[in-house]
Amino acid sequence: MNDGAESAAFSGLFRQADLGLRREIDGAAASPGVGIGPAYVVDRRRVHVLHRHIERDLVEAEIERLHEALRACRQQIEVVKSRLPHGEHRQILKAQQMILRDPDLIQRTETLIREELANAEWALTTVTDQILEVLGNADDNYFRERGSDLTYLIENVLQALLGEHGDEIDPPPGSVVVAQDLSPADTARMHRCQVAGLVTGVGGKTSHSAIMARSLQIPAVVGVDDVLAAVDAGDLIVVDAVRGRIIVRPGPEEVAHFQAERDRHLAFEQKIRKEHAFPAVSQDGLHVRVRANIAISEELDLALRHGAEGVGLYRSEYMFMNRDTLPSEEEHYRMAKHVLRRCAPYTVVFRTFDLGADKPTKLLELEEERNPAMGMRSLRLALRERDMFLAQLRGFLRAGVHGPLAIMLPLVGGVDELGAGLDAIEEARDQLATAGVAHADDIDIGVMIETPAAALTAEHFARRVDFLSIGTNDLIQYTLAIDRENEAVSYLYQPMHPAILRLIKEVAEAGARHHVPVSLCGEMAADPRYTWVLLGLGVAELSMHPSAIPVIKHIIRSSKTDDMKELAERVLKVDSASEADEMVLAAMRARFPEHLRHGCSEGEGGP
């Protein structure tokens, strides 16, 4: 929109704004920036549920219908997760999946279906209302907030049961989307709408609305109380996602102020985006390869537009999601071939399927585990499901003739497990050779370092593989003995903990001694606070969600190796994570305030 058109549009909105009073409402800044535009209000009413009785011989079918709807909603959440980076900000999505597996909710609903011969919709609504009444009467605000989560999720399940789909949102360009909450499907569609901002009545920085807004770089404020009562369609709104507030029906001078702040924010983004194709080379010549983490091939364009030098983590497990049959060798081959050709001449690192724990699939019979994060998952599961594993490996090896492909094994605990994984790769290669099928004979093979055991024995891995990749999301969880899905202990999830820093350094030094490159593909890689520390510790490559790449590359190009090493050495000497955080934040805020403003969530380094 040109300046004249923008002024005319805002002038009309000011005339409308005269009908109501200015109002400022606090929320939580979920995706940094400033957005200004007319409100596009999404106000959906509750699903209408009929109470009907079913025949007794249809009880089991009705229960299966319930479970199918629950699975469909969990898979819908999984699709959203597949497009997003790992890390603490995904906790709400994983928590939603856990709610949809809650045995109390499911068993009580099943009991009503069996004993009252109630249809699944009515039984689920009855049980949900009982739970909501208990949560609503709780003294603790945490439990009352869980009621909002439950209400939203059950609405989605009811829609699945009824075969209904919420009306698609279609906000005009330049508008601010205002809703009590948005579904994963809503947020996934927003990439094509070019909205100016996003405001929701519920949620925090870990809600799916916030996650998608950050991914799409849309200014967003969430958790705004009574937002639907405060905002009418067409109201002019300022989304101040730097300070965590919205201003409804602002005056002309206030709009001018925020326009200037928005323009400054956008100017910085445009500056670093213009340089997205430049390599990440420090001022003294250190070249850091910055790659993308992706889960589906459609994300490739975004990664390349943001300057990714290939793919450092392709999450192949999403080939197994939201489908009724196992992907075939041919499907793995075609997917990998497409990705390789699109990324040429850069390397693509395909992680073999990391299923289990927080990545369930209905294609496998996985037993309920008391602690799935430490159970049958990742490489352990692949070695058990050998035919499925070999089919994927054969597909990858065949695709390797079309471009530089690397295979990465996840959650490798020791050299014996690594040996079993390497044997499987050799078996897949032998099967292709025997069948006379063209395949790559010489590809790089690496491992993810995700446990303290793997980090402390990285020397042994470095002798046997071509690269190491540190997965800090699980490494932090396993090292600090905290469940990152558990909000009660999430404050203990500390990337700057002295133990984590020492383990990263241990792996980097092991790789250097054996001339094996060490990358880091956990959420830490995308956080501008940690760039100097990671590179100062000796990490040679970084892989992250695409939208973070321009900011991180710009920091590297503006830095010197000695400064990064000096900060890393100082941080290694401190005794606590809080002291390390303060030291790192002070150093990076002094040098890169705008970068932190763009790359950190509220309270994590922003103003």
Automatic annotation (TrEMBL):
Name recorded for this polypeptide: Phosphoenolpyruvate-protein phosphotransferase
Record keyword Chloroplast present: no
Domain PEP-utilising enzyme C-terminal: 272-559
GO terms for MF: phosphoenolpyruvate-protein phosphotransferase activity
Assigned keywords, A-Z: Coiled coil, Cytoplasm, Kinase, Magnesium, Metal-binding, Phosphotransferase system, Sugar transport, Transferase, Transport
EC number, as in UniProt: 2.7.3.9
Family membership: Belongs to the PEP-utilizing enzyme family.
Subcellular location: Cytoplasm
Cofactor(s) needed for function: Mg(2+)
Transmembrane segments annotated in the record for this chain: none
Major subcellular location class: cytoplasm
